[in-house]
Structure prediction request, 119 residues.
Amino acid sequence: MHKFISLAAMAAMLGMLVACGSTASTPAATSAPKPAAVTASETRDSSQSISDIKDVQDRLAHLGLYHGKVDGIWGPATQGAVANFQQSNNLPVTGKLNDATVAALHKTDTAPVSDTNKG
Prediction:
């Protein structure tokens, strides 16, 4: 004989599990911990402002290395573009915005890209 549980009964049981704080049935409880997120301060000089990052993104976009939104947010696309720039300019490839990278970017002949990419 098969027994069926109504949706209301299932919802009530789930509610009790959540109320008790039980996580035994969730896969996340048994998975390995995720590595800590990389913060902006770990990938750029802390003196770099949002405006500075926008300038870098704009210069990298003009060079065809950055295809994201010029928004001043340090993210994986910006970091990857910086690493590609470093590699193509014989700089140590760190993906970090350091003084040598900024100086090389400013020596590179770049004109601003159109405002359609700016945020």
Notes: Residues 19 and 114 are 53 Å apart (CA to CA). The two ends are 63 Å apart (CA to CA). Residues 7-20 form the longest helix (14 residues).
